[in-house]
Every structure is written in structure tokens, then in C-alpha cells.
Design brief:
The chain is an alpha+beta fold. The protein has 16 helices and five strands. It has a five-stranded mixed β-sheet with strand order 2-3-1-4-5, with helices on both faces. The longest helix has 20 residues.
């Protein structure tokens, strides 16, 4: 049976799981783990990929990433190939290190992003690499310690995650820690490690399947359908529209000055325009949140939240979409 093509588009949140072949160890000691983290951090920075969560276990690892300039496939190829070459050389072995191809699941950011951050960062506890929350806070091989300021990883989106828990770092870290601790008793959550609407409905408490679903996606039927449309739009629009022109078209569609979109204010139409720009820029054009934030004077977490709000207006306003997409589309 042929493999299903990946949904490999910039700007999508993806949960990646990589296992060692025959479930064998891919990290034998701290030198392996440190080398992997160095390679990961360098690639995140070089490819402008956001990493929201990660955890290394002896025979597998998890990443929660949002690719920027590079597609996920290229990013993972460089990460895995480079690490496997180094590992095989160090241990004088040959052959494959990883089991089949890596697993990647496109995830709807709301309500899954924080749930996935918590699930991934609790992996060392579930795998008995640590004995409790205190040890987890000091465990150097997951993003949990990075969020708490106990270690660093270039490219980890610390501000975006903590920004969802508060404006002040100290208070945000306390709230984040409490959130993670509340998930300790949940155990292994199968609805978060596989795609398809069936798993999404398990999380959302639904029992019927009247919506579209895709085995590559963890999200609602509406999200799946939007992904299919965005996949088609990116093929048509992505190479031909830059951020400045996007802002101009959205402003024209809502009949407001471009300057009103570029600066913060209390104008309702301008706020809506900024939300639409965030959504289209990150989800259709594949622009990075930091890039959009620099243009609009927003933080990365603010861009992410605005994009979620902008999706509803984009999906529900045909006139807006026609103006932004252009007559030729």
C-alpha cells in the first residue's frame, strides 16, 4: 500500500515522533544527547523553525515544531542524517538508526498546542527518566527546563509558550508549571499521538463523525477542510504575494488606510485587518510569526493568537477573500 503524502507546508504546527530501529537506543549517553541538541538548535536557527516543545528518551524523541523557511521534510532529513552519521561513526556501526520514516502529525493550534507542549514535556516522567516534577525541572534533555530558565536551546519558542500563561516571566513560569503538573495523572494520551478526526473527537468529547477528516491531521473537520483549501492556495498564491502587498489588499478589502493596519489602535476594522493579515501570512504564505510581528509591531505569541481570530473572518467573508486573492485567482 503506497504511503500517504505528508502535509508539509511552512507555518503548520507539527508533532514529530522518531523512534530507533527495532526500538533500540538512539541516545546512549549524555554526549549523544548534547550533540543532538547542538545540531537541533543550529538547524532551528538556520531554517527559522519554531520549536515549542521537545523531549529526548533513550530510544525515541518528540518535537513540536512550526517550520519557517524550510519545509519539515528538508529540516528532518538534515537533522536525522547528520545525527545518524555521527552516531554510526562514534559507535563503529553501519546501517539504519531510525525506524522507518519519522511520524509527523499536523495539529490544529487551538485547542491542541498547549496540550501537546504538556504531553511532550511529561514524556521523561512517563518514561521514568525522572522521578517527579522537581527532577523534571532540572532534566536537561527536554524543553521543559528551557521554559523554566534552567537551560537553553537556540530556536525554542520560549516567549510564545510562556506568553500564553502571563505577561510577566515569573508569573508565567509558575502558571505553566502548575499546568504541566496537572497533567501528570493523565498518562499516555493516545488522542494526542495520532492523526485523524477520530482521535480529535476523542479529545473534544464528540462521538459522531459528520465532518471531514484526514489521517495526517489532529484537528476538527473545519480545520481539515481549511488545510485542504490552504494547500491549494499556497500553490497559486505563495510565490506571487509578499507581506507588504498582503497588507495593502486586506486594507483595501476593509476600506481602511494601510497605516491603520500597521499600527496598533482601537479601530475595530483595523484590528480585524491585522488578524486577517496574521492568518493569511502564516497559514497561506508560510511566513514566520516573528517576521509578521516585526511588520505589525506584535510579539510572536500575539501573532499566533491574532491568526486564530483572523481565520474565522477569512473563512466567512467571500468578498474579503476575493479582494486579497485577486481577480486572476
Amino acid at each position: 500500500m503506497p504511503r500517504t503524502a505528508r502535509l508539509d507546508l511552512p507555518g503548520l504546527l507539527q508533532h514529530v515522533i522518531v523512534r530507533g530501529i527495532d526500538r533500540k537506543k538512539i541516545f546512549r549517553d549524555d554526549a549523544d544527547r548534547a550533540g543532538f541538541c547542538q545540531r537541533l538548535g543550529e538547524l532551528l536557527a538556520e531554517t527559522e523553525t519554531d520549536c515549542l516543545a521537545w523531549a529526548l528518551i533513550p530510544n525515541h524523541f518528540h518535537l513540536l515544531v512550526r517550520p519557517g523557511r524550510a519545509r519539515l521534510g528538508k529540516f528532518m532529513s538534515r537533522l536525522l542524517t547528520g545525527y545518524a552519521v555521527t552516531f554510526n561513526h562514534r559507535y563503529k556501526r553501519s546501517g539504519r538508526l531510525f525506524q522507518n520514516r519519522y511520524k509527523s502529525i499536523v495539529c490544529e493550534e487551538e485547542p491542541y498546542l498547549l496540550e501537546l507542549v504538556r504531553y511532550i514535556h511529561l514524556n521523561p516522567l512517563r518514561a521514568r527518566q525522572v522521578r517527579g516534577m522537581d527532577e523534571l525541572a532540572r532534566y536537561p534533555w527536554s524543553g521543559h527546563a528551557v521554559l523554566l530558565g534552567n537551560r537553553s536551546l537556540p530556536g525554542q519558542a520560549v516567549e510564545e509558550v510562556l506568553g500564553r500563561f502571563g505577561d510577566r516571566v515569573g508569573e508565567a513560569r509558575k502558571a505553566y508549571t502548575a499546568f504541566v503538573a496537572a497533567g501528570v495523572g493523565q498518562g499516555r494520551r493516545t488522542e494526542l499521538v495520532g492523526g485523524g478526526l477520530r482521535r480529535s473527537q476523542a479529545f473534544l468529547g464528540r462521538t459522531k463523525e459528520p465532518e471531514s477528516y484526514d489521517e495526517r491531521v489532529l484537528g476538527s473537520g473545519r480545520f481539515v477542510e481549511a488545510l485542504w483549501r490552504e494547500e491549494e492556495l499556497r500553490e497559486k498564491l505563495g510565490p506571487h504575494l509578499n507581506l507588504a502587498e498582503l497588507v495593502e489588499r486586506v486594507a483595501r478589502a476593509l476600506d481602511i488606510p494601510v497605516e491603520a493596519v500597521l499600527r496598533r489602535g482601537r479601530n475595530t476594522d483595523a484590528t480585524t485587518a491585522r488578524q486577517v493579515v496574521c492568518h493569511v501570512a502564516t497559514r497561506v504564505l508560510g511566513a514566520r510569526g516573528t517576521q509578521v510581528g516585526e511588520l505589525l509591531g506584535m510579539g510572536q505569541s500575539g501573532v499566533s493568537r491574532a491568526a486564530q481570530l483572523g481565520r474565522a473572518r477569512w473563512e466567512g467573508d467571500e468578498a474579503l477573500r476575493r479582494t486579497v486573492l485577486g481577480e486572476e485567482l
